[in-house]
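Ticket opened by: R.M.
Priority: normal
Category: complex prediction / small molecule

The reporter submitted a protein together with nicotinamide-adenine-dinucleotide and asked that the result be attached to this ticket for the collaborator who will pick it up next week. Submitted input follows.
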Amino acid sequence: MFDLSGKIAVVTGGGKGLGRAIAQGLSRQGATVHVLDVDTAAASECAASCNGFAAQCDVASHDEVLSCFAEIGHVDFLVNNAGVVCAPGQPFTENSEEDWDRTFAINVKSIRNTASAVSEQMRDRGDGRIVNISSVVGVIAAPFMPPYSVSKSAVNGLTRVLARQFAPYGVTVNAICPGFVWSPLWEDLGEVMAKTSDGTQGKDAREVFQGRIDTLVPMGRPQTPEEIADTVAFLCSDGACNITGQILSVDGGITI
Ligand SMILES: NC(=O)c1ccc[n+]([C@@H]2O[C@H](COP(=O)([O-])OP(=O)(O)OC[C@H]3O[C@@H](n4cnc5c(N)ncnc54)[C@H](O)[C@@H]3O)[C@@H](O)[C@H]2O)c1
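Result attached by the on-call engineer:
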């Protein structure tokens, strides 16, 4: 679909779920893709199919991120995909201080860590793409999981700030907000919701997930990991060179 041959990408959290599909999607379009993840086995499996290498890296740790990127060297595309959910939080006092700190460290501070690791080289070259994977709940509130929802709003804010700072150097920074995508994240979240949310008791994770689709998605179906991957590839392509600071919903109309 796009010609990304010769380009080098880094996908965080690329071992599983959306990150894996994003890494494989960029690779199919010619890019070499390096995969950073806390799950080394999953990262290695994915990287092997993308001609890149895998690194064990907790993106919340600035030191770990800096040492991984020093090893990687040249980066054309940085995809900040790693993220965690934190639930339940209704009322919000259910979430501990540690819930807030961990969620913000992995979902938000990580982007500061990785963007700072590529900042100098992208500015010097006058070229580069940064794509942050945010969420529909960064656009609309998710009262069931306050730290997650607020962290994704922060991702959207950080995307705009970075876009402004990188713009004079020809580097674009955008965010994608997926709606509902079946992944290991949802396997766990669906189970938690089945135990703690009103109206979902006794259901399994997939039924809880389907219930959200039926009630919230105008187009009536979930998003696929490949649809998110295609959007990332577009934002990395030549055709998107003048798009920056945008928060792009891929959610079947949830946020209309
Ligand atoms: N699945 C959805 O419906 C959905 C919807 C909206 C947004 N998102 C966002 O998409 C991204 C990917 O979600 P997913 O559903 O694939 O999640 P997932 O839990 O299935 O996979 C996340 C991956 O990130 C890795 N990871 C977790 N913490 C990490 C850390 N500290 N450092 C490095 N890697 C780490 C995990 O090991 C895993 O491989 C997340 O940012 C999530 O918030 C997902």
